[in-house]
Amino acid sequence: MIATLHGIIGLKTPESLIIEVGGIGYQVFIPLTTFYRLPEVKQPVTLHIHTYVREDALQLYGFLSLSEKQLFLLLISVSGVGPKLARNILSGMEVSDLLSALTKGSVEQLRSIPGIGPKMAARLVLELKEKAASLSGTNAALSQYGDSPSYEDALSALINLGYKEQEARRTLNRVLHDASPTASMSSFGVEELIKRALQILVN
Q1: Residues 75, 31: contact at Cβ < 8 Å?
Q2: Helix (H) / strand (E) containing 157
Q3: DSSP reduced 3-state for 106
Q4: Whole-model pTM?
Q5: In 3-state terms, what secondary structure has residue 4?
Q6: What secondary structure letter does DSSP report for 172?
Q7: Where in the sequence of the chain do the CATH 2.40.50.140 domains occur?
Q8: pLDDT tens, position by position, 77-123
Q9: Which listed CATH number (3.40.630.10, 1.50.10.10, 3.40.50.10580, 1.10.150.20) goes with 67-142?
């Protein structure tokens, strides 16, 4: 399972980019919200990755922020929403606005996204309203620390220990969410994050 990719941008378009890693070029599909914030070609970049596997294809979807990837995973959990539509939805609205629209049940706001009709907007609200509210709270906690290398290293360690990526992310997010508001990022090095996450996972 690929959690992140760090490499050099070989080519970028509004739909995808090529990340060169160790002599290999990975095609990664991206939403416009990520595209607009990418560095220039030949510059280094780190993306959060979701690997989409089907019988006839293996595709990588990448995001500059962890919150984008989390919302993408929520969207593709909805019946009738595949990776392409989820990417289109993310391209049409910033993460914070999209989470707000889902949490408030704003069908009209969701319908403003190209390709989203009234039925799909209503389905998104029905299936994601509570999950979006929960994710909004988690992102508020994560915003204190950013998408830190410590977080990603701890995530990789948990995955290597045999835990599923989504389970590992939920647990690490809970660690941050439950943290004292006065805690600093220095309180959450890799070892501390893994220790606290394992305390939750083994109980």
Answers
A1: no
A2: helix 149-160
A3: coil
A4: 0.68
A5: strand
A6: H
A7: 4-63
A8: 998 899 999 999 999 988 888 988 998 889 999 999 988 999 999 99
A9: 1.10.150.20
Q: Which two tokens stand for residue 87?
A: 């990417």
What are 24's two structure tokens? 């290999």
For the chain, the straight-line distance linking the first and the last C-alpha, in angstroms and rounded, comes to 25
The architecture in CATH of the region 149-201 reads Orthogonal Bundle (1.10)
Q: For residue 110, give both structure tokens.
A: 């969701």
Token code pair at residue 39:
């560095």
What's the CATH architecture for 4-63?
Beta Barrel (2.40)
The per-residue DSSP string of 27-87 comes to EEE--HHHHTT---TTSEEEEEEEEEEETTEEEEEEESSHHHHHHHHHHHTSTT--HHHHH
- β-strands 57-63, 24-29 pairing: parallel
pLDDT in tens, 28-40: 999 999 999 999 9
User: From CA 162, how far away is CA 100, in angstroms rounded?
Assistant: 34
CA distances from 162 to 54, 70, 197 (A): 22, 20, 13
